[in-house]
Amino acid sequence: MIRSVIKGVGAYLPEKVLTNEDISKFVDTSDEWIFGRTGIKQRHIAADDQLTSDLAYHASMEAIKDAGIAASEIDLIILATSTPDQVFPSTAVKLQDKLRIKSGAAFDIHAVCSGFIYALSTADNFIRSGNYKKILVVGSETYSRILDWNDRSTCVLFGDAAGAFILESVYTEDNLLDVGIYDSIIRSDGEYREKLFCDGGPSMSGNQEHYINMDGKEVYKHAVEKQTSIVEELLEKTEIKIDDIDWFVPHQANLRILDATAKKLKLDKNKIIITVEKHANTSSASIPLAMTSAIKSGKIMRGDIVLLEAFGAGFTWGAVLLKY
Ligand code: ACO
Which residues partner with 4 through β-bridges? Predict the structure, then answer.
């Protein structure tokens, strides 16, 4: 049978760092409040001339190098973003051109903070179908462009970044869960779309003002509840026990959400990869960014069983279980 194996990973963070102290100079907040409520200390902000596709390019180049392949071998690009360069064409085709890839296909996926899980799940299914052999899966965001920098309740939470995986098709003789992505589940419930949204949009209003609006308490409650239940569902589906998991790489929204979810799952806290302190919430980039930094620092090793999960606006949520 065919499996999707992670052949390479990469990430990119823009140079400029904005600390909690920096933000407290222009809105009424403090490092104490931000760190105490979210675990965030700083975030990276894209330069004025850097677009989502530029961040994606840097992360992709690192993943391509890590995989030891040529960009031209990639036959599909799936890019998750909720901050595309423009309404159309897709950011994925711009990335395809920046990588000088002339074959295959490229498209965007829009599932906000769950975007990378949606993209990875989609890529895995394309590989299992036998139609694609090497897929570049990217999460890239410039949330600094959709934040109201006068709104202290949201501007402190997000940052800019990109992360990428190269997935490769591998043929395995038996049906055992011995290599690559074991399985994934994605879910959504549009009833909650007004709990977290970005206003404006070409069809709705043509409004040029487009900022994040959020009911923080509701998001928190649903994030913990839905991430816990989807992980339990995936573990049951794959017949893997929570103690068999070596590393848990959750979407990095906020330390309290990570801690509460791990506690509900009875997951050893030492197995959680946490990067939110340095990067804040980078939406669809957060999982590949956290995974790349954990691999580079020697935490996640080849052969480890890794659980990825995310929750975001929509609401959308999902989980992927894999052997790295
Ligand atoms: N600095 C100082 N005070 C602030 C700030 C700030 N940055 N932001 C809000 N406050 C104030 C409020 O004005 C309020 O003041 P008041 O009592 O005088 O009215 C007080 O702090 C409490 O506000 P709440 O919104 O009730 O604060 P809460 O304890 O709920 O914490 C938080 C807010 C951190 C956003 C929390 O609700 C949360 O973690 N929610 C999850 C949201 C999240 O992570 N979203 C990310 C996107 S979704 C995703 O990726 C999963």
Answer: 169
